[in-house]
Amino acid sequence: MSRRAYHDPLHGAIVLDRQDPAEALAIDLIETAAFQRLRRIRQLGTAFLTFHGAEGSRFTHSIGVLYLARQALDQLRRDHPGLESHRGVLFAAALLHDIGHGPLSHSGEEMYGLRHEDWSGRLIQEHPPLRDLLEAYAPGTAQAVANLVMRGQYSNRSIKALVSSQLDCDRLDYLLRDSYTTGTSYGRLDLERILAAFIVAPDGSLAIHPKGLSAVEHYLVVRRLMYRTVYNHRLNVVGNWLLERIIALARQRQSGQLWADTVMAHWLWAPEQLGISDFLANDDLRTGYHLQRWHQEAGGGLAELCGRFLERRLLKATDVSQLSNTDQLAVLARARQLAATAGLDPELSCGLRQRRIRGYHPYAGGLRLWDGQRLAALEHHSDLVATLSEPQQMAWVIHPREITGALRKDLKQDRLSAQIPAP
Predict the structure, then answer these.
(1) Those residues with Cβ within 8 angstroms of residue 77's Cβ, 6 or more apart along the chain or in another chain
(2) Rounded to the nearest 5°, which phi and psi values hold at 38?
(3) Where in this chain does the entry annotate a coiled-coil region (predicted)?
(4) Element housing 91 (H / E)
């Protein structure tokens, strides 16, 4: 078969043709075991505990990124045919940008303490089934793709921006896809207008035509909303905290004191020596099975936390974003005290999670408008974009459900007391 069709719920039929060398490379990369593993990695980590439709995989997302990268390149090469020579690197980077994700995607990065970009680069350069395909396409391709996905570095600035920038094909696909799977209707982007607005600036970088300004503003607003209400939903925060504590407790035990297969043993007790085969052997299925076994057999706090996660007996999270760091720690201390009084282990039920959200970084590869005469920073043409550059701090105290009323009553009283001037 010279043509391969992937039927996507967002983009429709994505057809690749082996007669096109870059598309043939994409088909071969998709068929590798390393890429097929992404079917077993949830795109949204623990979000399925909150949004029951959030069961999509990194596999589906990565093919969506490839589709958008091809659409964007087709748009740009009409005026810049020389970009065609970068087609293979672009397609490979679009497909493989998430190849290094561990179990449960970003949740797994927190629980196991790894960085998926580093593993993506390592797999591309060192895993023969991937590296050999890339090098057969053109010598030096593996290194070029690895540098692009791992460090955001590439010789052509426009191609680099399509893979790694504040308006890249990865972000466009995951915002659309994650909104779709979680049922959050405000995630609808004007994708066609955004892609049509891509233009190459005189310095070779990717810019936005002014006709696309409103669509890009909308994209940045959607991104801020998705981070606030989906990616950093309080129950996602609780789920990730539970997983972190589970792995921390598992690592505190000696290898002979806790059941783990050979692969998981390396992930737990020798992560600095983790090899490629053991990395690829861990996914949502293997990690999930270990949580089940530990729930049944490990005993103590580890079994309790595994049960909480598997049975969705989640802890509560109280928003303390408006408090100072000192006051947040005071609320955590009060939660731990209340938990202990209630006969609950504070180490297993209380924590503080802090996040810093910044929807747009004007000084980190910021977007620019090009109208054919003048190249200017996006925030200089949009008050909305300038507003979105302000960072947003979020913080939650995690605590048992049993102390929610008492903790929030104390917190409310403290806030009221703070508003009453001293006599």
Answers:
(1) 83, 84
(2) -65, -15
(3) none
(4) helix 87-96
In the numeric block, which tokens belong to residue 239?
Answer: 């789920």
User: Domain 3-232 in CATH: superfamily?
Assistant: Hypothetical protein af1432 (1.10.3210.10)
Which amino acid is it at 58? R
pLDDT single digits (tens) 225-253: 999 899 999 999 999 999 999 999 999 99
Phi-psi region of 204 (alpha: psi -120 to 50; beta: other; left: phi over 0): left
Q: pLDDT tens digits for 32-51?
A: 999 999 999 999 999 999 99
Global pTM value: 0.94
The CA distances from residue 379 to 62, 237, 310, 318, 369, in Å, are: 30, 31, 45, 34, 10
C-alpha closest to that of 68 among 196, 251, 206: 196
- 66: left (phi > 0), else alpha (psi -120 to 50), else beta? alpha
List, by residue range, all CATH 1.10.3210.10 domains of the chain.
Answer: 3-232
Dist CA 315 CA 404 (whole Å): 10
d(CA 340, CA 309): 21
